[in-house]
Amino acid sequence: MFFTYFKTTGLAMAQIFFLGALGYIFVKKNILSHAGLDALSRLVIQVIFPALIFTQLLANFSFDLYPNWWIFPLISLVITFAGFIVGWLLLKTFRLKTHKLQFLSLAGFQNSGYLPLAIVAAVFSGQDAANMFIFIILFLLGFDLVAWSCGIYMLTYENRARFRLRSIFSPPVIANLTTLALIALGLNKFIPEAIFKPVAMIGNCTLPLAMFVVGGNIALVQLKDIDKNTISIFLLGKLIILPACGIAIVLKLGLPYLLGFLIIMQLSMPSATSLSVIIRHYKKEDALISQGVFFSHIASLLTIPLFLSLYLSMAVLK
Question: What CA–CA distance (Å, rounded) separates 169 from 57?
């Protein structure tokens, strides 16, 4: 049973790796310039991903079908907080002399949108896939609010970056809140097919283009003077301890199958590539962030199929 699931999730990761590798090669070979990558990243964040959120919620979400929708943003906050706790315990236990807030950011903020969406698209089909897309979109509502407020502060505190309320209302958050409001008011019924279908076509471009962006961002990572001890301890906490604890808790609580999968998947994710983007934007020392993002994505090619397969096989047996 385990090896069957490992083959399925491993093949899914191989497909995702292929798309990310294309983005990596395009940037390394300068087929896609740094300016082009920035433009593509803005296009995905500001237009294409919001289009996916808009159409997926309109097509598959209703407050009657998902009366406990608010649980998903709450779960995202709990997972982020759990990452902070594990990171803090590792810092204290091993007495690491490193950028503490950067270490905590790597442990707390994961690639919570693009990579999970790609995994779900590769692993699930039909109604299960539709449900998982909704789960992830609602999960991101909480994650983005924290990542683009608390995350920016943690990474730029020495620069005394001013907190701006508008920074947490990114286009995906705005798309999420706006679509939920349309559905709550019943206005979604008046959106014509002539608008919905082309927007859905735009949204369907999200997954391949998003993986291009992820791979391209990893290609920009600067790897020099690698702190092997710190990175090894970080990977232990992020990719081993967090998902292992998650499996134990999810199975103990007897959570529904898809909800449990969402939690284990999010806990298994590598660090968010957006951390490197924030660091570069504010011109901060980024050695630890770059190394953490790079090596967590490489290591997760093995750890993600491992823990998802463990969960799937144990959940079925339970």
Answer: 18
Tokens of 36: 């082009």
Q: Please give the Cα distance from 271 to 292 (Å, whole number).
A: 7
- Provide the H-helix boundaries in 95-157: 100-108, 114-123, 126-146, 152-156
pTM of this prediction?
Answer: 0.91
For domain 2-317, give the CATH number: 1.20.1530
Amino acid at 116: P
Which residues in the chain belong to E strands, given as ranges?
none
Look at residue 148 and give its three-state secondary structure. helix
N-to-C CA span, the chain:
13
Return the pLDDT at 240: 97
Single out the residue of 266, 235, 246 nearest to residue 137, CA to CA. Answer: 266
Residue 269 dihedral angles phi and psi, to the nearest 5°: -70, 150
Local structure of 300: helix, strand or coil: helix
- How many residues would you count in the chain? 318
Angle CA(18)–CA(231)–CA(154) in degrees, nearest 5? 95
Identify the weakest region by mean pLDDT among 9-13, 117-121, 166-170, 292-296.
Answer: 166-170
Can you count the helices (H) and strands (E) in the chain? Answer: 17, 0
CB atoms closer than 10 angstroms to residue 29: 9
pLDDT in tens, 107-158: 999 999 889 999 998 889 999 999 999 999 999 989 888 887 777 777 776 5
